[in-house]
């Protein structure tokens, strides 16, 4: 397919440099850090040292606030316990789901899965994994101290905001980067249905359908190269 065959509204998408990357940012709990050059590095996007002070995060009903910089993303929320858990993110707080839209996106009302032995003061690290890169997953982590005390309504609302983003598909098999995941053999999983969930969007047609379908598999870099053939 040549550029001349594409609608004029799609042309700017394919005129971007092929080195452009799509990313997300973990805004709450406080992330260890974020760097476009290391975002694909497991387990925490190149930030492998625990960040102090830790963010207090409710055992039952805590939000994870993201800022999405890709129009469609698969996301998974994992957790590891301990002072410095390394790469042992074997607790599934939210199974892989598909999200659509740019800007603020809150994964709200998340809880430590039933059966995981935690109490007030348990140290943990939350890992958010997303796709959106031709080379695999994108990773960010936040170090937390778990608490049985719920956030106040104002604190919750301050750290749980949505723009035009929405969930379009729940409980997708596998991890966002298409691998079997990096957790241990004793994986725990929790499933939460949230208010931001929406029915699947209507299917696109024509060049838009090709772009969305290919970008989902290949990432932003791969689809640009594909469409310019």
From TrEMBL:
Membrane topology: Lipid-anchor; GPI-anchor
This protein's GO CC annotations: plasma membrane; side of membrane
Subcellular location: Cell membrane
CDD domains: LPMO_auxiliary-like
Record-annotated Copper acquisition factor BIM1-like domain positions: 21-164
Top-level taxon of the source organism: Eukaryota
Pfam families: BIM1-like_dom
Cleaved signal peptide residues: 1-22
Keywords, comma-separated and alphabetical: Cell membrane, Glycoprotein, GPI-anchor, Lipoprotein, Membrane, Signal
Presence of the UniProt keyword Ubl conjugation in the record: no
Region (Disordered): 171-206
Protein name: Copper acquisition factor BIM1-like domain-containing protein
């Amino acid at each position: 397919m040549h550029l001349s065959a594409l609608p004029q509204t799609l042309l700017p998408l394919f005129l971007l440099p092929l080195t452009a990357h799509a990313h997300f940012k973990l805004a709450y709990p406080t992330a260890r850090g974020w760097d476009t050059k290391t975002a694909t590095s497991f387990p925490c996007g190149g930030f492998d040292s625990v960040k102090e002070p830790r963010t207090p995060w409710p055992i039952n009903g805590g939000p994870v606030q993201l800022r999405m910089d890709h129009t469609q993303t698969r996301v998974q929320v994992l957790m590891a316990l301990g002072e410095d858990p390394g790469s042992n993110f074997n607790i599934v707080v939210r199974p892989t789901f598909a999200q659509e839209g740019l800007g603020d996106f809150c994964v709200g009302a998340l809880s430590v899965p039933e059966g995981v032995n935690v109490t007030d003061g348990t140290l943990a690290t939350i890992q958010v994994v997303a796709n959106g890169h031709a080379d695999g997953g994108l990773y960010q982590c936040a170090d937390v101290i778990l608490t049985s005390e719920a956030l106040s309504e104002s604190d919750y609302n301050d750290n749980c905001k949505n723009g035009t983003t929405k969930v379009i598909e729940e409980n997708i098999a596998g991890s966002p980067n298409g691998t079997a995941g990096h957790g241990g053999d004793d994986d725990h999983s929790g499933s939460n249905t949230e208010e931001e969930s929406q029915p699947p969007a209507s299917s696109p047609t024509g060049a838009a359908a090709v772009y969305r379908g290919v970008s989902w598999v290949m990432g932003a870099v791969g689809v640009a190269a594909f469409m310019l053939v």
